[in-house]
Design a protein that fits this description.
Number of helices: 17
Helix content: 40-55%
Order of helices and strands: HHEHEHEHEHEHHHHHHHEHEHEEEHEEEH
Distance between the termini: 27 Å
Number of strands: 13
Number of domains: 2
Shape: globular
Strand order of the largest sheet: 8-9-10-11-13-12
């Protein structure tokens, strides 16, 4: 592993960190406002400032800053401002109507970029005062596809060990990466959750968090976690919903033609930070694939307006395929993950015969790629690097 880390450390210094979404966001800013959301410390502010660097008359304002707040409240930015970046604006009372007024009365040349994480994404989903006035983009951690053009990827080792958040991924050594993660988790549990919603039992919510870290890739039972944590199932459900809102975990549900029925079935939970996953290499590998596919699916939704979703397949008899990409709730592609077993899984064969849609088995350690009775057996590194988003 040390040789691999030395290799990456040298290359990471050369990574420009030009996020692939930048060009799409700059294109969308010409037409409407852009909301840029995503996990804490994923690089939203960095990307916003990079976009600002190509606009000579840009202004970055953070609502957490007292001086910036005065400028925002009084709308006292210069009239020839070309790009206005508003960070943490969701903390402003009645921010949506404020933003609606700014947008509806702005000069034609003014572009508006609004950035934020949990609250902005959550509040965005309620009410329609901003309907038709913005495009949304969700920024996620680095992925093999995003870094393919920036650096030569020899393996997926670093993504599995450190996750794709910029700071730990580009850290000079494992010690700095671990220190970042320790502070990151502490900030999420003690600061972000308290800011998001009143939670008094930090021991219980931390226990649920730790249990989820050890159950990645398995269907999650609220009752089972409740027994282990010593709390009620509804409390577990509430805590997990907070984790989702704060971009700590994301869920995928089993596919069903009846969407409401699929939501009632046991979901699988994955972390936005693959480095948080505890357990076998297989669990971390599956989490990395889940996050890469989610990023790909969200990229298609946000940039192309197509109704893509990420799900998984499970039969009444318990046969399961790790992932299924849906287009308008219609299965479009199914994917099974394996660390080293390149023999096609029985479940994947069964679902392939049932749906007759493209099927892929992604293998972390694979000597050669091939097709087995219509099912592709692919190197995970090659496949994930070739994703569109």
């Amino acid at each position: 592993m040390q040789k691999s880390l030395d290799f990456y450390a040298k290359l990471c210094k050369k990574v420009s960190m030009r996020r692939t979404q930048r060009a799409i966001i700059e294109r969308d800013l010409i037409k409407k406002m852009v909301f840029l959301t995503g996990p804490r410390q994923v690089g939203k502010t960095w990307l916003a400032r990079e976009i600002a660097s190509s606009h000579p008359k840009s202004l970055y304002l953070n609502y957490d800053s007292f001086d910036d707040r005065n400028i925002i409240t009084k709308q006292s930015w210069l009239p020839d401002t070309e790009l206005l970046i508003l960070d943490e604006l969701h903390k402003m009372p009645d921010w949506k109507n404020f933003l609606k007024g700014v947008y509806d009365t702005k000069p034609p040349e003014l572009k508006i970029l609004v950035t934020g994480s949990a609250r902005l994404e959550t509040f965005r989903q309620f009410g329609d005062s901003l309907a038709g006035r913005f495009f949304r983009h969700r920024l996620l951690p680095f992925s093999p596809a995003e870094l393919k053009g920036e650096m030569v990827l020899e393996s997926l080792e670093l993504f599995m060990e450190r996750g794709g958040f910029p700071e730990p991924f580009l850290a000079e050594n494992d010690i700095n990466a671990r220190r970042w993660r320790m502070q990151y988790v502490d900030g999420l549990i003690r600061t972000d959750i308290l800011d998001f919603e009143r939670v008094h039992d930090f021991r219980a919510i931390h226990t649920v968090f730790e249990l989820l870290r050890r159950r990645v890739g398995s269907p999650v039972s609220y009752n089972s976690i409740a027994r282990d944590a010593g709390i009620a199932p509804n409390t577990v459900k509430k805590y997990i919903q907070i984790f989702e809102a704060l971009f700590i975990v994301f869920r995928i549900t089993p596919y069903s033609r009846n969407i409401a029925r699929s939501l009632l079935k046991e979901p699988k939970m994955y972390f936005y930070d693959t480095g948080l996953v505890e357990g076998s290499p297989g669990a971390r590998f599956e989490n990395l694939v889940a996050l890469s596919l989610l990023k790909h699916v969200w990229g298609i939704c946000d940039a192309e307006g197509l109704p893509y979703e990420l799900s998984y397949l499970r039969s009444k008899e318990g046969a399961e395929v790790d992932f299924c990409i849906l287009n308008g709730n219609v299965p479009d592609l199914m994917i099974e993950t394996k660390v080293s077993d390149d023999a096609v899984s029985k479940s994947l064969r069964m679902f392939y015969k049932k749906y007759r849609i493209p099927a892929i088995q992604l293998v972390l350690n694979l000597k050669r790629e091939r097709i087995d009775d219509g099912i592709e057996v692919r190197s995970a590194l090659n496949y994930l690097s070739d994703l569109k988003y």
